[in-house]
Amino acid sequence: MMNNNDLLAIADQFGTPVYVYDSEKITSQYQRLLNAFSEVKNLRIHYAVKALSNISILKLMNSLGSGLDTVSLQEVQLGIKAGVDPAKIIFTPNGVSLEEIEAVAELGVQINIDNLSILEQFGSKHPTVPVCIRINPHVMAGGNANISVGHIDSKFGISIHQMPLLKRIVDNTDMNINGIHMHTGSDILDIQVFIQASEILFEAAKHFENLEFIDFGSGFKVPYKENDIETDIEELGEKLSDRFNTFCQEYGKELTLAFEPGKYLVSEAGYFLSKVNVIKQTTSTVFAGIDTGFNHLIRPMFYGSHHEIINISNPEGKQRFYSVVGYICETDTFANNRRINEITEGDIIAFKNAGAYCFSMASNFNSRYRPAEVLWHNEKAILIRERENFEDLLKNQIIINF
User: Fold this and answer.
1) What pLDDT does 155 receive?
2) Given this model, what pLDDT does residue 149 score?
3) In whole angstroms, what is the distance from residue 361 CA to residue 347 CA?
4) What is the pLDDT of residue 153?
5) Residue 194's pLDDT is what?
6) pLDDT attached to residue 289
7) How far separated are the first and last CA of the chain, in Å rounded?
């Protein structure tokens, strides 16, 4: 695993800000999930591309044996470009056009539909194409409201209460339903709630005779700080595996159990390195102003996510309280009154849990460049995305004269 000296060397070599991903941690998380569900005969893992879509990460996932969970045609195309077999990709969009779904289907990817209107249109035109159905179980599985997607007011999935209408559409179109799916959202805290939602999915599965798989989504919580709560994946594996195997016996067929982890696989593998530009003392606060902002790491401002912040330039220093803020012309506070080893201007600080939804949500706000990405693999730092430059800001713009 990486250490502070490795991170400092990367900051020195590639500059800051910079994202760093540890392939060993990604691999260990993948293996942990496999081990937790080792009692299931047919297990399929689809990495959620939206968490971190760098093509080198997709190639790493492919080398581990993972498929992909995608939400756009472009993510599908990235996966195929990375060498992933289209048959190992599932497409679970929300609110996209019928034309986009048809374009993905033509690539040989598993389609997952989450609304009745598109389901009927697609089934009427393409009754032989295998389709998975995304069910909304109306279960709150934990986490921030912005990332909880299984509740009754969610835009995601077909309500479990609409099963009679859903079944009528399937019967009328004679379409091929080969999978059933749910995703309750991120940061699952209570395994029993997940099991409860699974029971709803098992009950729904009984309505379809030709299923090949049941997809339970993901949303497994990772720890964000020392002694933080995380999803007990081993306990979940034991309980859900037993229940799944029993259901397969009742169903009369060996089905595949599928998951779509994103954050679970890459969050803890990521570090975001930044340099301290200025220490600013006010009447009530000590600010550490750094060379980045919510243009590169929006999660704390967007939905209050916690990222541990460590001063890797002074890891043994006396701790003081700082508010860590960015350089954006907006309020971009990463941490308020956070205890951190004493910071001086020029120090390198590291944000932990920066593997998921960090670069993938980055922007050019304030016309700032998006940072480089580096993969730490086999004890070596490998550049997997170059830092943007001024020409990148102008790319695709059409300059006119007045």
Assistant:
1) 82
2) 43
3) 25
4) 62
5) 85
6) 98
7) 56
User: 329 catalytic, yes or no?
Assistant: yes
Joined together, the tokens standing for residue 337 give 């009154």
Give the start-to-end residue ranges of the domains of the chain.
Answer: 23-265, 270-388
Instruction: Name the residue among 200, 226, 257, 246 with its Cα closest to residue 36.
Output: 257
How high is the pLDDT of residue 189? 72
Q: Superfamily assignment of 23-265 in CATH?
A: Alanine racemase (3.20.20.10)
Please give the model's pTM, rounded to 2 decimal places.
0.94
Residue 387: both structure tokens together: 């830092």
Catalytic residue among 132, 248, 329, 358: 329
Q: Which residues of the chain have pLDDT under 70?
A: 140-153, 185-187
pLDDT of 233: 94
Which CATH code is given to the segment(s) 270-388?
A: 2.40.37.10
pLDDT at 244: 97
Annotate the chain with three-state secondary structure.
CCCHHHHHHHHHHHCCCEEEEEHHHHHHHHHHHHHHCCCCCCEEEEEEHHHCCCHHHHHHHHHHCCEEEECCHHHHHHHHHCCCCHHHEEECCCCCCHHHHHHHHCCCCEEEECCHHHHHHHHHHCCCCCEEEEEECCCCCCCCHHHECCCCCCCCCEEHHHHHHHHHHHHHHCCCEEEEECCCECCECCHHHHHHHHHHHHHHHCCCCCCCEEECCCCECCCCCCCCCCCCHHHHHHHHHHHHHHHHHHHCCCCEEEECCCHHHHCCCEEEEEEEEEEEECCCCEEEEECCCCCCCCHHHHHCCCCCEEECCCCCCCEEEEEEECCCCCCCEEEEEEEEECCCCCCEEEECCCCCCCHHHCCCHHHCCCCEEEEEECCEEEEEECCCCHHHHHCCCCCCCC
Q: How far apart are CA 169 and CA 80, in angstroms?
A: 32
Structure tokens at 236: 């979940």
